[in-house]
Amino acid sequence: MIKDIPTGGISYLEPLTGSNGWYWGTDYTSGDLYEAEELYRSGHRISRNRLILVRFPEGRVAEPIEAKEGQYFGRPGYDGRDPLLLLADFPAGEVRLIRYHDETGETSAEAVLPLSELEDCYNLMPHRAPLMLTRQTGDRFQIIWPDRADFAIVPQESFCFREGDRLYFSRWYEDPDYREEVVIRRFPDGAVIDQFRGALQEMPDGSWYRLREDRP
Asked: I want to staple 60 with a disulfide (CB 3.0 to 4.6 A). Which of 26, 55, 104, 185 is the partner?
């Protein structure tokens, strides 16, 4: 059976991680958020993008906010209660984390941060449990809100989740065979407190599986 979903031209949807039912899509009119920021900073006019949410299995479409001139959506998040939209307002010099209340169709500001507090919007995204905004470059990881942390990481590391003062990263190697390790760093200084072979896999409900090498 095929269900028609009116998206207004948005042709690809991704699961909203941890929501177990929400999907999201955008039209990337000026690339991703970082690319749009670069265009704006270099004096070019950016085309605002659209962001929609689609609820499975009903196929219900929501477009909580219409971006205005000079505004651009980044990757959204989910904190166990509601979808959270990341919106940069370049003329206002702000980045906003906006909560969408599906029951009422209303939105509310979860956080408003000056763009001047960020080096740029590269890999800026919300994470859940606890809710926070992070930013990661090739060799650096930052927590921007509500806490602050800034420390060096190995270029082959990717942040996965936080559990109290333990920050979990996945690290990969090719030496020469491909393998993965789990690296646990301490908040806020990033010191490595544990490291072991295995991989981390996030599940649709937001929980994590550790994929161990021993056979079942």
From this structure: 55
